[in-house]
Design a protein that fits this description.
By secondary structure, the protein is α+β, with helices and mostly antiparallel strands. It has four domains: 105 residues; 33 residues, no CATH class; 120 residues, CBS-domain (Roll), CATH 3.10.580.10; 89 residues, Uridine Diphospho-n-acetylenolpyruvylglucosamine Reductase, domain 3 (2-Layer Sandwich). 48% of the residues lie in helices and 16% in strands. The protein is built from 14 helices and 13 strands. The strands form three sheets. Strands 8-9-12-11-10-13 form a six-stranded antiparallel sheet, covered by helices on one side. A four-stranded mixed sheet has the order 1-7-6-5. A hairpin with a 5-residue loop joins strand 6 and strand 7. Helix 9 crosses helix 10.
């Protein structure tokens, strides 16, 4: 019944509608044409009250409060009802007629509850304290998880800590310990040519066995490669099935775009996961003057949520990407750009990378999205 809800829903909907229409017609016959206006109004009120109280509000409220008992008590009746041949034929015939009028698969396959409706139900339940705020956020995160691609959650190439295959085991152990990683990609000549992964536990075992001067290539493990456009839900299923915890992300040209781990995927659902050894990076910070300070790699979605804005995220994923693309060049520290009613200033730049950005909401004005301002400009 859960796998094919349309059979039960359509049958119950048809019977409920038939009951209401038949009751209304019988009421009309009972009152008769000679009855006064008062009797007609009284009959309509009684009909509405009876159906609302005993057909809608009371049973549905009880079922929500006692979902297991309601499901078990009604499952047998509903199963028999949906398989009653005459009713089944009528439902299929009517749906076939509707599908002729409105072609498509919607009436045959559903869905009967949309993602938006479930999100709204979670919001209402949180407001009424039926569920915790954290549970509401978890529900929203699960839906967003299905729409997220690997590019949005990966550790980008500039942040990837990798080791050359010609490096010694002792050197690789030092790199892993200094950076706090238990797995690292190993490459030949360039990080675009990743040949495998090295695990700290393998390196430590080699070092303890007196093989610290051996090259890293002697303890390589196979690496998994995924495109940056792959959906994270699909990647998580692959990680669970094939039992790997890190994948190398490649761009459309085959170069290394970054790495992604199981922890990165889980954080999309439950939020940031930190342990006692992690160095927590500064996140979104509100300043006393009303501006917002964010790391350059902050996702646009997070900024939209913080500012209650609607900045586009199709062309770029991060705030740094928005500033880069809008300016068209590597910004100098203090250089600003106006976009979507906000001013974005590159507060700190390292090489070609925007480390932090200051965001300021601007007063509504005329057209001005995309205007640039240098760090030494005094007026716009």
């Amino acid at each position: 019944m859960l796998e094919q809800p349309e059979e039960t829903v359509n049958s119950v909907t048809l019977l409920a509608l038939a009951a209401q229409l038949i009751t209304a017609n019988l009421l009309g016959l009972l009152i008769g044409t000679d009855a006064g206006v008062g009797f007609v109004v009284l009959g309509i009120l009684l009909n509405v009250v009876v159906f609302f109280v005993f057909g809608e509000a009371a049973p549905k409220t009880w079922a929500v409060q006692h979902s297991d008992r309601a499901a078990l008590r009604t499952a047998g009746f509903l199963w028999a009802l949906t398989r009653f041949p005459p009713l089944r034929w009528i439902v299929r015939g009517l749906l076939g007629f509707v599908n002729v009028i409105l072609p498509g698969k919607g009436l045959k396959q559903g869905p009967f509850v949309t993602e938006t409706e479930i999100r709204q139900m979670a919001d209402v339940a949180a407001q009424e304290e039926a569920i915790e705020t954290e549970e509401r956020e978890l529900i929203h995160s699960i839906f967003e998880f299905g729409d997220t691609v690997v590019r949005e959650v990966m550790r980008p190439r500039p942040d990837v800590i990798a080791v050359e295959v010609d490096a010694t085991v002792d050197e690789a152990i030092t790199i892993a310990i200094n950076n706090g990683f238990s797995r690292m990609p190993a490459y030949e000549e360039s990080i675009d040519n990743v040949v495998g992964l090295v695990f700290l536990k393998d390196l430590a075992a080699r070092g303890a066995a007196g093989e610290g001067n051996e090259p890293v290539s002697t303890c390589l493990r196979p690496a998994n490669f995924v495109p940056e456009s792959k959906r994270v839900a699909e990647l998580m299923r692959e990680m669970q099935k094939e039992k790997f915890h890190m994948a190398v992300v490649v761009d459309e040209y085959g170069g290394t775009a970054g790495v992604v781990t199981m922890e990165d995927l889980l954080e999309e659902i439950v939020g940031e996961i930190t342990d006692e050894y992690d160095i927590e990076e500064p996140q979104v910070e509100r300043l006393t003057d009303g501006r917002l300070r964010v790391p350059g790699r902050t996702p646009i979605d997070d900024v939209n949520e913080e500012l209650d804005a609607d900045l586009p995220h199709e062309e770029w994923d991060t705030v740094g990407g928005l500033v880069f693309s809008t300016l068209g060049h590597v910004p100098a520290e203090g250089e600003c750009v106006v976009f979507g009613g906000y001013e974005f200033c590159a507060e700190r730049v390292q090489g070609r990378r925007i480390v932090s950005v200051l965001i300021k909401a601007l007063a509504p004005s005329g057209p001005g999205a995309g205007r640039r301002r240098g760090s030494d400009d005094r007026t716009e």
